[in-house]
Amino acid sequence: MDTIQKTKDELEGQPPIPLRVGEVHEDTTYDAVFGEMNEQGPNYRNVGFLGTVALMMKTQVGLGVLSIPAAFDTLGLIPGALCLCAAAIITTWSDYMIGVFKLAHRTVYGIDDAGGLMFGVIGRYVLGIAFCLYWIFVAGSGMLGISIGLNAVSTHGACTAVFLAIACIIGFIFGSIQTLGRLAWLAWVGVVCIVTSILIMTISVGVQDRPASAPQDGVWVSDFKLIGNPSFTEAISAVSALVFAYAGTPGFFSIVSEMRDPRYYTRALVICQASITALYIAIGCVVYYYCGSYVASPALGSAGATMKKVSYGVALPGLMVTTTLFVHLPGKYIFVRALQGSRHLTENTIIHWVTWLGCTLGVAVIAYIIASAIPVFDNLISLIGALLGTLLSFQPMGCMWLYDNWTKGKAAKSKKWMFGVGWNVFVVLIGTFLMISGTYGSIVTIIESYNGATGASAWSCADNSNSA
């Protein structure tokens, strides 16, 4: 253990020449995070450029995009689009800082490592626990999305609790694939399916006379609003949902750590963020323009019963990949932390497999319980985005820039440095505000949903696609 730690300490601070971070000796590779890797064990450094793009896009494009039109309905078209662009700018900066920080600190694997460097033991544990909870909650929302899709396609062919159990099993089986490199092709499948289903739904609401839930008699004109008039609770919950659409940020630590060549990280990031932002704006504006206040959440149910089946049928593989990836990420994190410094991390031993499968199974089961206990899709999305999404996507990245640049820039105090300080302090402050206020708004909304006459109940067999 001391030898490994010494090697890690020696690697820390070296110039970032990351064609393959680590030293290669014949058939053995030493990585600053995973230790010695050889042909007898899994290759944790096997994600190529295209695979990186796919994983980034699948981490971002998933559940959050389905709640964007409903958020626009709350905020209004113009404020909604502006808030979406603001979230895109801030999270793109945060994503960029992950790559920069990783190359400057090679031993960093997860956001908890960054927290440990900046804030010591407390920072490591707080961010590590938040990371696990966040992805487990997101996996739960993925399972909820699968259950909605299965209900829609089958016309409620079974109890929703059964569909949630099926989603849990799918998440565990495919989430137990050992490396992100092997999951990259699934990520492409997921991205294509989700985007295709959304485009089908978008085209459908554009060509139809009116959305499915709108009054079917008389002349109908969309009641979309350019500027909404929400209460504070409604507004902040909607903003939290928009933040969640970009809150794949903490997963980028895992992705860059498994890249073959992390120098291509920024290039992949630009492609990912530019593509999904264009998609989000187009989907949000078009769907809300044609549906108005009758937009469904998730949005795939906005085009009528038949197109709802078609949209969810196409989206289901994508929702399954979403759940798979979100079970894998916290499972991998716990697994690496449990076995780091041991040969069992990179060798196919009994301890390796028991620990790995135990981690993914535990994550899947906890996510299933969460999905069953909070069965309202948009409420769950808002709560996750507010409580954990902002905490892991805003504040730490602002602090990462300050950690690396405060001391060396304070002496000269150039305009570029002062702008950087101001921007990153703003990122920390806005993230803290959104976390506190958004969590409050989401909790109030969930309580109102349970108390209302049509509120959803936990562990219910009822069809959860009726309002979707």
Automatic annotation (TrEMBL):
- Record family assignment: Belongs to the amino acid/polyamine transporter 2 family.
Report the superkingdom from the record: Eukaryota
Q: Which residues cross the membrane?
A: 47-72, 78-104, 125-148, 154-174, 186-207, 235-256, 268-290, 310-329, 350-374, 380-403, 423-447
Question: What is this protein's record name?
Answer: Amino acid transporter transmembrane domain-containing protein
Q: Per the record, what is one GO cellular component?
A: membrane
A single Gene Ontology MF term assigned here is: L-amino acid transmembrane transporter activity
Subcellular localization is given as: Membrane
Domain named Amino acid transporter transmembrane: which ranges?
49-443
Question: Which keywords does this chain's UniProt record carry?
Answer: Membrane, Transmembrane, Transmembrane helix
Organism for this UniProt entry = Aspergillus nanangensis
Q: Which membrane topology term applies here?
A: Multi-pass membrane protein
